[in-house]
TrEMBL record:
PROSITE patterns: AMMECR1
Protein name: AMMECR1 domain-containing protein
Organism: Shewanella benthica
Residue ranges of coiled coil: none
Every AMMECR1 domain range: 12-201
Gene3D superfamilies in the record: Hypothetical protein ph0010, domain 1, Hypothetical protein ph0010, domain 2
Pfam family, one: AMMECR1
Length: 201
């Protein structure tokens, strides 16, 4: 069973990581932080031990409660000091599903950070077997086959009525037909810790 990431962040450290993402977006517009203040009201530099961690990470932006951008890396190849600014920038300006973030929107955008556990392979013989496994716990899911790959964070479960709809949507996202399954598909599971500027840390 996948474990939570081997990190136990304090509320202060969560705010520091959010502030790092926020300051990246402020700097991208060359804005004065006093004009676009961070909702965390926390401007200290991140604790060095925290930002040097290498964890899979996603940065999600919402605007007026609606998704505005989400980009991530599922394996921790970079430190958070590098990945959080890169992903915040990519989510704001390079998520092809959305128009780039505009400076007047910056003050209304909320940032969420998700830190991933190590990926855990799961051997299944069919989609039905995977559905039965996911019915027990709502993990994050990665599907891979012949160069195709798609990932859903655990938070995405709230948009689907059950495992079949969740898996089918992920297949479509990855470029497979909705009704496709093959014994060559590789399955990986993970969990996350996630926190946002709008939540109680």
């Amino acid at each position: 069973m996948p474990a939570l990431p081997s990190v136990n962040l304090t509320e202060s450290e969560k705010r520091q990581l959010l502030a790092l993402a926020r300051s990246t977006l402020v700097d991208a517009f060359g804005s004065d932080p006093a004009v676009n203040p961070s909702p965390t009201s926390y401007h200290k530099l991140p604790n060095e031990a925290v930002i040097e961690l290498k964890l899979g990470c996603f940065v999600t932006l919402t605007l007026n409660g609606e998704l505005k951008g989400c980009m991530g890396c599922i394996e921790g190849e970079q430190t958070l000091a590098n990945s959080i600014p890169d992903l915040a920038t990519s989510s704001a300006f390079y998520d092809r599903r959305f128009s780039p973030l505009l400076e007047p929107q910056l003050g209304r955008v909320s940032i969420e950070i998700s830190l991933l556990s190590p990926l855990t392979p799961l051997s299944v013989s069919s989609q039905v077997q995977l559905e039965e496994y996911l019915a027990r716990d709502h993990y994050g899911l990665v599907l891979k086959e012949d160069g195709l790959r798609a990932v859903f964070l655990p938070q995405v479960w709230e948009h689907f009525p059950g495992p079949k709809a969740f898996i089918d949507a992920l297949k479509v996202k990855g470029g497979w037909p909705e009704n496709y399954w093959s014994d060559k598909i590789e399955v990986e599971l993970f969990k996350v810790i996630h926190f946002s500027e709008k939540s109680d840390l």
